[in-house]
């Protein structure tokens, strides 16, 4: 059996009930979760209707003219009162059929979910795009490690300013490809850069000029290895920003490429 308070929920959402009926509905809502859900839905519709029409002040004197008109005797013959229906009809139910309301609610939920899904897809696409360079670099490194002749050259600290940092270089003299990994190097001034050199038979040749991040780390892929000799060393120096034609400072670290 339908509780008569169900028919009052819509008017309660609009604030159109007298105090006694409003209190009756509030007691009903406090003990009925389904009624609370319907109230929440009606409240959303009521909010939308409240803002759908611009609110304006009545013309000056409108209230007085209205009261004056009510005070005048009416010449209209009173008609027989229309019997009131036994059951109060919901104006919201007549405005929106139950079926239409359910369809509209489902469509709204679908659009909200679709918008959230679209935003998540866009976010994932951006994350994948940002990872593409790293994926390509990892693939290059994997291929380099798999090639014959590839070797790991750790650069030893010469005691001139590495401050506990480390540098390792994966190099393949046959292909000329190299990969530099630096960790915890000291930060440099804005007008300075690190520079990697190949020292072939005592002649330094520039391989790469690089900077480190705030943690002192750097990962550098190097496509070209300069001409090698009978004895080949790798060294790191601190140079003016942009690099130098020849080293201008003692190397921070040095390593040997095996023949």
Describe this structure as you would to a colleague.
With 259 residues, the protein is an alpha+beta fold. It has an eight-stranded antiparallel sheet, with helices on one face. It has six helices and eight strands, in the order H-H-H-H-H-H-E-E-E-E-E-E-E-E. The protein has helices spanning 9-14, 19-30, 33-52, 62-71, 91-95, 98-146, and strands spanning 151-157, 166-172, 177-183, 192-200, 203-210, 218-222, 232-240, 253-257. The model has no long low-confidence stretch (mean pLDDT 78). A hairpin with a 4-residue loop joins strand 2 (166-172) and strand 3 (177-183). Helices cover 39% and strands 22% of the residues. The chain is rod-shaped, with a radius of gyration of 41 Å.
Number of strands: 8
Main-sheet strand order equals 5-4-7-8-1-2-3-6
Identify low-pLDDT runs.
none
Mean pLDDT: 78
Order of helices and strands: HHHHHHEEEEEEEE
- Largest sheet features: 8 strands, antiparallel
Question: Approximately how much beta-strand content do the residues carry?
Answer: 15-25%
Roughly what percent helix? 25-40%
Terminus-to-terminus distance: 95 Å
Radius of gyration: 41 Å
The backbone outline, from C-alpha atoms, is rod-shaped
Question: Which helices and strands, and how do they pair?
Answer:
Blueprint: H1 9-14, H2 19-30, H3 33-52, H4 62-71, H5 91-95, H6 98-146, E1 151-157, E2 166-172, E3 177-183, E4 192-200, E5 203-210, E6 218-222, E7 232-240, E8 253-257
Antiparallel strand pairs: 1-2, 1-8, 2-3, 3-6, 4-5, 4-7, 7-8
């Amino acid at each position: 059996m339908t509780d008569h308070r169900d028919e009052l929920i819509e008017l309660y959402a609009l604030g159109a009930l007298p105090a006694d009926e409003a209190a009756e509905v509030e007691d009903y809502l406090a003990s009925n979760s389904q009624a609370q859900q319907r109230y929440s839905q009606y409240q959303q519709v009521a909010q939308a209707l409240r803002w759908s029409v611009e609110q304006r002040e009545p013309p000056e004197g409108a209230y007085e003219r209205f009261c004056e008109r009510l005070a005048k005797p009416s010449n209209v013959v009173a008609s027989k009162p229309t019997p009131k229906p036994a059951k109060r009809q919901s104006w919201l139910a007549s405005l929106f059929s139950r079926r239409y309301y359910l369809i509209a609610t489902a469509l709204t939920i679908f659009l909200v979910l679709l918008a959230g899904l679209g935003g998540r897809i866009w976010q994932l696409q951006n994350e994948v795009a940002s990872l593409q360079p790293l994926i390509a670099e990892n693939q290059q490194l994997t291929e380099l490690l798999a090639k014959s002749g590839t070797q790991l050259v750790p650069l030893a600290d010469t005691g001139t300013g590495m401050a506990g940092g480390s540098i390792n270089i994966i190099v393949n003299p046959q292909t000329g490809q190299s990969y530099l990994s630096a960790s915890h190097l000291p930060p440099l001034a804005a007008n300075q850069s690190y520079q990697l050199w190949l020292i072939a038979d005592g002649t330094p040749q520039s391989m790469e000029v690089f900077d480190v991040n705030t943690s002192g780390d750097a990962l550098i892929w190097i496509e070209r290895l300069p001409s090698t000799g009978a004895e080949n060393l790798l060294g790191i120096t601190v140079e003016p920003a942009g690099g130098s034609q020849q080293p201008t400072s003692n190397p921070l670290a040095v390593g040997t490429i095996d023949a």
